[in-house]
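Hey, can you fold this?
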Amino acid sequence: MLEPVRQYARERLEASGEAGQVRERHAKYYLALAEEAEPKLRGSGQVGWLGRLELEHANLRAALSWMLDPRDAEPEERVGMGLRLAAAVWQLWISYGQVNEGREWLERGLSVGADGGTREGALRGGRGKRHGQRDGP
């Protein structure tokens, strides 16, 4: 039942001409959430924040998909946002055994293109984050 409702809502949103603005607001919200959560994913509130991000995993993926869409005419700002989001939720992927997914998002962002500072930060973070990590329990 939910899929027909979702499809209808998507069609209405596209017809409104505001789909791009809504997707951008959605992506910026989830980037802000992830960046707020990132430093708390290693402290005493880790369990609560991991749970919250896990509940929002589909929305995080949707935001990453939009940010890292290679068909975008001007991807640089969005790619930078996508790399920041992928780096911010790295601990989520480690905790749930989804390191390959995180690595795939980072690689996708780097292949789409980003400015030098964003690329350098993602590469530096990716080296430290992937060292000694693997998928699975």
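Oh, and this one too while you're at it.
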Amino acid sequence: MEKLKLRPLDDRIVLSPLEAPKQTPGGIMLPDTAAEKDIRKGEVLATGPGYILKDGKRAEMPVKVGEIILYQQYAATTVEVDGDELAIIRQGDILAVCEGVVEENPARVTMEEEFIQDVEAVKDELPV
């Protein structure tokens, strides 16, 4: 059976919503009610040609297929296609484009670690 393909019109974008994490980095399990509901992350699957400007030309779409974006969940129209849940949004509902991964700097010291280092450095001088 051939898969159904969607071709968005004007300034619409078809997304594959990405799941919100169910667990914090510290291992705490989050219930559905605690998850951030208003802003979602999704992968762009298809874009329309852009909306028509007053001069008759089309506006350029700010995202490309394969990019990861943040969008307003309640602005999305959710559809199921071939068993996959997809979201369709308008260009104006895009909040941001995720442009790469921020790598942790191993040399970075947190405030807590810095405090512990300071205490260790002066612990012999502290009155007991």
